[in-house]
């Protein structure tokens, strides 16, 4: 049996350890608080005046707000640190902590990255392609792609884009042969598609396109949407825009984090980033509908631009040339082939469901707003 004399030192040791532990518990928050928020410096691949850079800032604000200021992202415009096409290398090396762009800008690093948005996406729209990414195996395949080029990044696709125009031209394009010899700007796998259609392709970042057209270095070009095209000045160098194309039918944006810095974030912050990315993607879609439709009207009214639907014969030719490009790339790149097969399997199921169940809204549009529509009170 232990005497009271024997128990006294044990009590003293216990009290000493307990007191030290309590002090550490009190000190820990103070230490954490003293370190302050985690600051990240990012860059977008867009000019400061483009709505895309606004989307990048919207994303940063959502993350900053949702983390309560524990993570603070500052987004610089294209060229502030590196050129637009240099974003991947800068984030991978840690020159930048992260960035906002599109995967097709990394086409020169790994051609299969263009399958996230550059092409017809096997009849899927951009939202469906994001569904494939999240639920159909795309996320895991994208991680394999970046690992294949030793890119130290975490990629979060978000923000589904509407179908992009065929482009801006000197005169309406009536048949596929009209593209032969045209000095044309595009990016990603669309480079190969338009080359296959006979165009002389030059890949330029968004901020350089209009000046190249103005100087005659380009005859025609595509970028993305009515808002971006209008603010970048396309209407100053062309009054003809061809709508609808399969070359970028299902593109989305990409959030890039330096992987080392992302992995070092607390679990709570990484969970918030995931939620913020999905929320920002939906908010971007709503903003795009509002802004693109207004700028589309202003391009026609204020800027006197004429819009034409791309003829079906050109759209069909795009699909045929795209299939030839995919067959070649698949033979060269096993990962490219694996991604194509994954997309097609998901698309066959998803697009059949969509085509069978979603009503074509053209009839309703004509009923309410078409030339023969009755005035509604």
Summarize the structure in words.
The protein is of the alpha/beta class and 377 residues long. The chain has 2 domains: 36-160 and 251-289, Bacterial extracellular solute-binding protein, family 7 (D-Maltodextrin-Binding Protein, domain 2, 3-Layer(aba) Sandwich); 167-249 and 303-358, 3-Layer(aba) Sandwich (D-Maltodextrin-Binding Protein, domain 2). The protein is built from 14 helices and 11 strands. It has helices at 4-35, 51-66, 87-93, 126-135, 138-148, 190-196, 209-214, 226-232, 234-237, 259-263, 267-301, 312-332, 334-357, 362-369; strands spanning 38-44, 71-76, 98-101, 153-160, 167-169, 183-185, 200-202, 220-221, 240-243, 252-258, 306-309. The strands form 3 sheets. Strands 2-1-3-10-4 form a 5-stranded mixed β-sheet, with helices on both faces. Helix 2 (51-66) runs antiparallel to helix 11, helix 5 runs antiparallel to helix 13 and helix 6 (190-196) crosses helix 12 (312-332). The chain is globular and about 65 Å long. The relative contact order is 0.14.
Q: Descriptors for this entry?
A:
11 strands, 2 domains, disordered N terminus, 14 helices, alpha/beta, 377 residues, 3-stranded mixed β-sheet, 5-stranded mixed β-sheet, single chain, D-Maltodextrin-Binding Protein, domain 2, globular, 51% helix
């Amino acid at each position: 049996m232990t005497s009271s004399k024997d128990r006294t030192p044990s009590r003293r040791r216990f009290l000493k350890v307990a007191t030290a532990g309590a002090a550490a518990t009190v000190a820990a928050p103070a230490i954490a608080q003293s370190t302050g928020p985690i600051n990240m410096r990012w860059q977008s691949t867009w000019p400061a005046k483009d709505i895309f850079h606004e989307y990048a800032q919207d994303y940063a604000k959502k993350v900053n707000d949702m983390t309560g200021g524990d993570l603070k992202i500052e987004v610089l415009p294209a060229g502030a640190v590196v050129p637009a096409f240099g974003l991947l290398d800068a984030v991978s090396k840690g020159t930048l902590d992260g960035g906002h762009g599109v995967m097709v800008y990394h086409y020169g690093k790994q051609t299969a990255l263009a399958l996230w948005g550059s092409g017809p996406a096997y009849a899927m729209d951009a939202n469906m392609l994001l569904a494939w990414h999240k639920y159909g195996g795309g996320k895991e395949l994208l991680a394999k792609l970046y690992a294949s080029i030793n890119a130290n990044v975490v990629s979060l696709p978000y923000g589904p884009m509407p179908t992009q125009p065929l482009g801006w031209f000197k005169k309406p394009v009536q048949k596929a042969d009209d593209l032969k010899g045209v000095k044309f700007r595009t990016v990603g796998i669309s480079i190969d598609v338009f080359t296959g259609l006979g165009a002389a392709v030059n890949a330029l970042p968004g901020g350089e396109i209009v000046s190249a057209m103005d100087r005659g270095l380009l005859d025609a070009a595509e970028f993305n949407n009515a808002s971006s095209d209008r603010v970048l000045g396309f209407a100053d160098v062309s009054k003809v825009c061809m709508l609808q194309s399969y070359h970028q039918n299902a593109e989305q944006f990409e959030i890039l984090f330096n992987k080392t810095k992302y992995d070092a974030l607390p679990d709570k912050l990484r969970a918030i980033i995931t939620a913020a990315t999905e929320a920002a993607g939906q908010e971007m879609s709503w903003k795009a509908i509002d802004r693109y439709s207004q700028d589309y009207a202003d391009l026609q009214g204020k800027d006197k631009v004429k819009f034409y639907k791309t003829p079906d014969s050109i759209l069909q030719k795009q699909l045929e040339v795209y299939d030839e490009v995919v067959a070649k790339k698949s033979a060269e790149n096993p990962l490219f082939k694996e991604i194509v097969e994954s997309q097609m399997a998901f698309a066959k199921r998803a697009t059949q469901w969509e085509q069978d169940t979603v009503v074509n809204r053209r009839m309703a549009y004509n009923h309410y707003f078409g030339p023969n529509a009755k005035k509604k009170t």
